[in-house]
Amino acid sequence: MKRKINFGAIVTYYIIAIVCRYFTNKTELLSSFESPYLKSILTGVGPAIGATAVFLIFNIKPVLSLKGNYKNMLIPITLYWVFPIALISMVSYVTLGKIPYLAVSSVLIYGLLEEIGWRGFLYQEFKALKPLYNILLLSVLWFLWHLNFDFTPIQISFFVILVLGSWGIGKVADSTGSLIAVSAFHSLNNFFPNMNTKSGPILGILLAVWAVSLLIRKRMRIKAANC
């Protein structure tokens, strides 16, 4: 039986996500918070609130979880959160004498809040569509959610990044089922908004380690299935 799209859930989710984004980014709602890290995290809370609401209202069972299909919760946490926090903090300490663990942690938490909505809910709902349509439609909604409507070359480049991210993060979601994993891949762009000689190698190391781990995991699962 062909899966049907729950349009009511999608509209409800997106309205909540957009409204939250507007109030956290376009008003003074967060001005009373002193911590810049907390402010940053809260700007991404809309998708998480929207997804949680539709899960409850429409009785939708989440497909992704924090642990995903890993046997132990410690594995995705160590690989996708502890590792980038330690690596980026170490490089920053050696080069700048600072340990930005709070900044890195806030980026990961922000990514998690977004991914609860985008990959945890919307990507799953759009699976009733062809993969290309899923990616493009999700990317458009994701782009508009950022409330940047000047359509400059920078914004066009950002949209292209979102399309590539929707494809790549979707693959990670399907492979791991883990919100921890998808939040880490989501955070790569926020970790390194401006590429330079320092951030480039860090990005390369993270991508290499994560790609190899996913490849090994895929081969192990195929081997186990054939036994």
Keywords:
227 residues, mainly alpha, 9 helices
Description:
- α2 runs parallel beside α5.
- The chain has one domain (64-226).
- It is mainly α.
- The protein is built from nine helices and no strands.
- The mean pLDDT is 93.
Mean pLDDT: 93
Tell me the fraction of residues in β-strands, as a range: under 5%
Structurally, how many domains make up the residues? 1
Structural class: mainly alpha
Run of helices and strands: HHHHHHHHH
Number of strands: 0
Largest sheet: none
- What Rg, in angstroms, do the CA atoms define? 18 Å
Structural shape: globular
Alpha-carbon distance between the termini? Answer: 30 Å
In short:
The protein is an all-alpha fold and 227 residues long. Helix content is 74%, strand content 0%. The two termini are 30 Å apart.
Secondary structure topology:
Layout: H1 7-25, H2 36-42, H3 45-57, H4 74-96, H5 101-125, H6 131-145, H7 153-176, H8 179-191, H9 199-226
